[in-house]
Protein 1
Amino acid sequence: MVFADPGEALTRARALLDADPSPLDASVAHQVIGIWQRDFGDLRLALHHLRRARECAARADSADREADVLATLGVALVHAGRTREGLAAFERGVARGGGHTRARVLYRRAYVWWVLGHHREALEDVRRAVPVLRQADDVIWTARALTLRATVHLALGAVERAEADFTAAEALWDTTGQEHDKADAVESRGLAAFRSGDVPAALRLLDEAEERYARLGTPTFMLNIRRCEVLMAAGLAPEALAEADAAIGKLDGIGGQSTRKAELLLAAARAARPAGDPHTAIARAALAVRLFAGQRRTWWETHARLVLIEARHAAGRGSGRLVADAAAVAGKLASFGAPAAPEASLLAGRIALGLGWTADAERHLAVAARSRRSGPPLARMTGWAAQALRAQAAGSARGVLEACRRGLDVLDDHRMTLGASELRARATEQGAELAALAQRASLVSGGPRRLLVWSERLRATVLSTPPTRPPADPELLSGMTAFREIASRAEAARMEGRPVPALEREQRRLEREIRSRTLHMRGEVPGGGHRFDVGRLLERLGDEVLLVELAVLDGRVQVLLCGRGRVRRFEAGLLAAAETEAEHVQAGLRRLAHPGAEARLPVVEAAGRRLEELLLGPAAAHLGGGPVVIVPPGRLHRVPWAVLPSLRERVLSVSPSAGSWLRARETVPPPDGCHVLVRGPGLATGGAEVPELAGRYGCATVLEDDEARVPRVLEELDGAALAHIAAHGTFRADSPLFSSLRMADGPIVVHDFERLDRSPYRIILSCCDTARLASVGADELLGLVTALLPLGTAGVVACSAPVNDAAVVPLMLALHKGLDAGLSLAEALRDARAAQPGDTLHQATGWAFSAFGAA
């Protein structure tokens, strides 16, 4: 019962001990309490009760009872880090038990071998146990043994064997009432899905397992560890680190298993490095190494050493000793048959290259490169990265480009299995090194055109295909409705000065639930999206339009000037300096949004001149007088480009990539699309431009007051030719897909827009922060604007800074006047800026808005 209904089993065991039981029954009761405390509570109490259980079994003179207790005690001792004592208990248990009981003891020793990382010994004990358990028709223990065998197969990389055992075990579990074991089986299937490369299915199954555990009231430390691994593969390293650290705190709070703490520390260390915190990774990994060593868990200790070496290398430590350590770890992992062995060889080769030890590097990289032909996607990418580094060391630019292409093709296939745009964007981080290697090789040998192709390779790839539509999931839809209600109540409370902690907690809970459900979606589009074609781009640009793509190589901006049938390259300034200057410009625009800040205008203009030198360099003199499209890297998405002197007076648009500009340029407007005007609540001007625009357009659909509710707004936006939304915008840096526009019934978020069949062909967002985006992955952007572009929107006007609401109104009216005259959004915005009063407030307001896309 302890794995069917843990709480009820604990209650009954305690009641039995209160009733003065016989030694045999007392042994069972103490063992149940020991199991409960071992797996769900305090390990010290577990050892106390299990020793009492053994004493009672000895008094009852039952060899099988004593053998069974010794097996449970052996597991507890190993989890407490007392490995030698635990294995000795198993030796006595195997000797004392007979037949069926011995098979159960062997199963539990196999579990311990798995915990310790002795996979061959684990398989041998399971091989001896399963036939006996089957012959005894012991369904529960046979299912447990099959589940364990599958888990060991996964650790060895044998995914197909694991899936066969998981399937057989699940069929047996369906005939039992073992709810905890069933939850464990679902969790294990999630791990198998992850190992086979299906991240959305893994997340869905792990969430389902967590719900099952929650109904039983049992902790989920193993599940936390597995979810960390999946989150890492999905590019969600900060979330993985937070999950691991929270689980460690909870485990410490209940005096839980030392073995699980070591595994959680390893998970935290693995997550901290890609989360940008190598020093935390070093601290967590070093502690995990000490714990694993004390627990005599060599397999785990070796994996922790790999993470420790990776973290030290990420912190800038490179030495011959580190190369030797990485090589030793690679050798040990290979002897274990661990799938991480190529990763360790790649690390040894990478460090050796940094030291100039080319012969050593070649030896280690050649070993790592063998993994490029088979295995899960990330393992194959490790192999292709090693092959690319080998080619680079050999001076073969062609070899570098071929290896990078093959590796990124693997990433594309993996990325397109992900349905959620957030996961697609973050997954590109795995290919950042390959893209950078290819760009360097192109810069040396391939000329500007090839550099442009590789600059586009991992830039805004999430926009290359529409996201998978969220399913018509009643729970998801009701969660979105509840989220809007809570967010609306919280906003009202803030405005009235009332406390909102309870509402904010519920809002965060609903956000986690919604995000979790969207991450479960699988991708539906085969292949990696459209391939970028330089010739097609130059043809579309013609002789008038210039596209300026900014690539970053080794921290310096490379300007690729495309148009008039050719691609030219210019070198500009340092990216870090440009980012700092862009922050100064943003701060200046925030000040200029308020009357009385005229003295700041020269400061902003001077910062704009410095930005131009850093970002365009000598290319600024070659822009001519025609329209310009700027394609910045993700880290420069907040630059208000109209502040740069050479761009201030011209037709200017911004695009996340040259490929997305091409798609926008070729997007056909809807033949019978309508105009939609939306006015949200709480605006300082009341959205004063909307009534005037309604009079101008006549037949436009106007949604305001109680009609501006999210379901109705989405219904009208779907397939519209033009939408103008005057509503407060909120950018969420912590969760960009919950960036929102405020409607009458609460926020409309990016997740809502992704449910549209076709977003408006043109859309104007007239309030603050609507153009702010989060840079994630290799060079991806998440936010309101990027949610619209792959859904049929060809052009967006939005704002990247706080603006003065009153100054926005005349700018918007002038913008629509240009659209009436047949101008594009970029042309109309240029003319609207020129038509504004010459004071600082209106000038800064015009600079804060940008046109995106090509419509």
Protein 2
Amino acid sequence: MKRAAPAPSLKPLAACAALAVLVLASPAALAQEKTLRIAMTAADIPRTLGQPDQGFEGNRFTGIPIYDALTQWDLSKADAPSVLIPGVATSWTVDAKDKTRWVFKLRPGVKFHDGSAFNADAVVWNVQKVLDKEAPQFDPSQVGVTASRMPTLKSARKIDDMTVELTTSEPDAFLPINLSNLFMASPAHWQKKFDAAAGATPADKAKAAWTAFAADPSGSGPFKVTRFVARERLELAANKTYWDAKRVPKIDKVVMIPMPEANARTAALLGGQVDWIEAPSPDAMAQITQRGFKIYSNAQPHVWPWQLSFAEGSPWLDKRVRQAANLCIDRGGMKQLLGGMMAEPKGTVPPGHPWFGKPSFDIKYDVKAAQALMTQAGYSAAKPIKVKVQISASGSGQMQPLPMNEFAQQSLKQCFFDVQFDVIEWNTLFTNWRKGAKDPSANGANAVNISFAAMDPFFAMVRFVSTKAFPPVSNNWGYYGNAEVDKLVADARTSFDDKARDAALAKLHTHIVDDAPFVWIAHDVGPRAMSAKVKNVVQPKSWFIDIATMTMD
């Protein structure tokens, strides 16, 4: 088949490097302290007010470093999957008689950056900021990126200073995992911003307070914000009194720069303007390593798919078409395009995973089988099926979206697919994801290309296939679902025993792969390039990475 055009050349690197110098401090100016400079794929600084945007790149760079959550991911190992561990909660239990009631014991001695204490009141306050419309601190702008990630959480109640009760709308064994996305902001610090804010109504004052809080935030994480310039830079300083001795930062300062274009990031690294870049340009890998930089990658639970629409009139309603698309992607050729920096999927999770199950549909490259399915469905070279995919040009976990999508477009052409793209800015695409395929924001698209984390059952499967996750509740953008799937979801969600839950999830994954509500195109391996002076880097089997434990020469 005809290959898609290769990734853009590096001829513009010198010009890109020159532009990077304009926004980055010179190495000499930073020599007095150990400063780590990071070029992100995002086009803007992820929100700093507690609940980040920009997808999980926001959690990676402004969530986990600045804030804590009740639960967190263990990012300390490169040779084992990341697992959930205690954060600012030390333990949690579900009520034996009422599985909608959870009790969390909190970690004593934790302080927010402003010096105020973390306690049960702070947990209740942070739950209310996204769930209670009557609470003074309720912030509609934080609801979308939070509630969709923990849709069953209903309320929070203080039992004593170090104990809090959380209730869910239905039994939900996934709750502790979901809570890793609820970051704890300082109520006392916000209250000072609110008291100083101008506004005709309490809601106006609250909005102004959150804006002021974002510019001068207070979490309890290993780093504190010292400077914030929208669309330009975020500067963090080490929190030397952080509660976890193993994660007290050795690096004095972190500077984060939004740099969505791969060539610009690569140029900034090679030119010495940054120490770390996300998603380096694939055709620069050899040059990067030859110049002494290190490229880190690892298998991770990260799916790069097309999520398909099941709305009335969608071209994807015929399962034969969905399966044909999965059989027509030349993933080996795409892996070559990416310099080897991807894994070829067999579903949402890989074979051997406890949730993989026994799908009868084998995702592979088989053009003849794909063409046969398309012929049965009534399509041919003379009568192709037209599909439209909404994609981004860059963004969190999006890998190299333009060359990858163009490659898939060319690959699918031989199986009678006429693919069009609607290219929009990443954060806009991510926002549209919660509005759904029936919303005008879809702009006529019947598929969407948004990569997602698959480290837990809700993020990997449930939010895409449950009818309870239809927009705007969560991320079932395509309105996929039926009674059989809902029963499989319920079986998994109400299994509080690990083995029983794994067995239920294996049945769910089997159904999903066989019914193919996605075109599974790639699994990311999270390539990032760093200066050799950055030490103690652990690239976990996770979308996330821990800056706090790194050091610098």
